[in-house]
Write a structure and sequence with these properties.
This protein has 6 helices and 11 strands. The chain has helices at about 15-20, 30-40, 45-60, 70-75, 100-105, 205-215; strands at about 115, 120-125, 130-140, 145-150, 155-160, 160-165, 165-170, 175, 185, 195-200, 205. Strand 2 and strand 3 (about 130-140) form a beta hairpin. Helix 1 (about 15-20) packs across helix 3 (about 45-60), helix 2 (about 30-40) runs antiparallel to helix 5 and helix 3 (about 45-60) crosses helix 4 (about 70-75). The radius of gyration is 18 Å and the shape is globular. It starts with 12 loop residues before the first helix and ends with a helix. The relative contact order is 0.16. The structure holds zinc ion. Zinc ion binds next to strand 4.
């Protein structure tokens, strides 16, 4: 598992993502995405804690170094991101949980949106080099252009929800898509959908809208 590329191989991709998070092997944006997921939804905290313990035990067995304190490791799961410089704390936000606010260094009201297509806005995070990390805002009921991926796209829903052939995702859910999936996610009708998406390779868009979108994106 390299630092910047998350490539699920077998089993439930979400479990591999969580395991990589527990092992500390994810890139900062993906690490922040998983921390935000855990902050919103408790479902996977137990799994991550168990993985953290396993990783800790592996470290212990491999080296006679001092045992790392389990409580502080558990606390670290929900704490600030180690790879991101210390930033002043921001007021609580109903959409962006603390790990994402820290990653972005701003609250939702300070996000500078750029319109991609009618009803679809994005805010790219440019500080993570080769890792493509973006916030998306999609109008209720709007459909994203059809596309597939050269790498793995991990998306965390922060507000509202969306559907694609792999399922229906609501706030706190993580959707994982790779080159096998050609999809055009549709935002739920009830409210604006805000997502945080991390890709380890550029999107490969398909279809006529995709070609237009690619030109728009400068791909
Ligand atoms: Zn996608």
């Amino acid at each position: 598992m390299s630092l910047h590329h998350f490539t699920p191989s077998s089993g439930r991709p979400i479990d591999e993502l969580l395991a990589a998070y527990a092992a500390g092997s994810l890139s900062p944006p993906l690490h922040g995405l998983v921390a935000a997921h855990l902050a919103i939804k408790p479902d996977n905290r137990g799994f991550v804690a168990a993985m953290e313990e396993l990783c800790g035990r592996a470290v212990q067995e491999a080296t006679p170094a001092p045992v790392r304190d389990r409580d502080s490791k558990l606390a670290a799961i929900f704490a600030d991101e180690p790879a991101v410089a210390e930033r002043p704390s921001l007021p609580p936000c109903a959409v962006l949980p603390p790990p994402l606010q820290h990653l972005l260094g701003k609250g939702l009201s300070d996000v500078r949106w750029k319109t991609l297509l009618p009803g679809i806005r994005e805010c790219p995070l440019r500080e993570f080099g080769e890792v493509d990390a973006k916030l998306f805002s999609i109008r209720p009921g709007r459909v994203m252009p059809s596309h597939t991926h050269e790498g793995t796209e991990v998306t965390l829903v922060l507000r509202g929800g969306f559907s694609d052939p792999t399922g229906h995702y609501r706030r706190g859910d993580i959707a994982i898509a790779d080159g096998e999936i050609d999809h055009h996610p549709r935002a739920d009708e009830d409210e604006e959908c805000i997502c945080f998406a991390v890709l380890d390779a550029p999107l490969r868009l398909t279809g006529p809208v995709g070609r237009l979108f690619n030109r728009f994106m400068g791909h």
